[in-house]
Amino acid sequence: MATNAPDVAANSTVQRILATEIVWLTTLLVLALACVLWLAQTASTSESGHRLLLPQLALVILIFGQTGWLLRDFNPSIDPRHFYPLTPALKEI
């Protein structure tokens, strides 16, 4: 049975959004890798811990940018009864 559903991936708006996300994530990945190299170089040449704070902080921010910022507008569209099911054990409580 054939359906006449539109091809969402062919939509130019969706393609533009995906391209933006790919560029964003790729940029953050490259920066995170550079930060790891910076952290490794700083850790091997420095004996003081305070010099490690900046690359560690930058790495945490970059990792958050790849995950937390990406899902900032996430709104699950599932019925709450499926997300929080009421099991027989919970009914007894």
Which descriptors would you attach to this protein?
62% helix; mainly alpha; flat; 4 helices; single chain; 93 residues
Describe this structure as you would to a colleague.
The protein contains four helices and no strands. It has 93 residues and is mainly alpha-helical. The protein has a domain of 60 residues. It is flat and about 60 Å long. The mean pLDDT is 81.
How would you concisely characterize the structure shown here?
The protein has 93 residues and is mostly helical. The chain has helices at residues 12-45, 53-67, 80-83, 88-92. Helix 1 (12-45) runs antiparallel to helix 2.
DSSP strand content: under 5%
Care to count the β-strands?
A: 0
**Helix proportion range:** 55-70%
Largest sheet: none
Distance between the termini: 47 Å
Return the structural class.
mainly alpha
Poorly predicted spans:
none
Shape verdict: flat
| Radius of gyration of CA atoms, rounded to a whole number | 22 Å
Q: Report the average pLDDT across residues.
A: 81
Alpha plus pi helix count: 4
Write the H/E string, N to C: HHHH
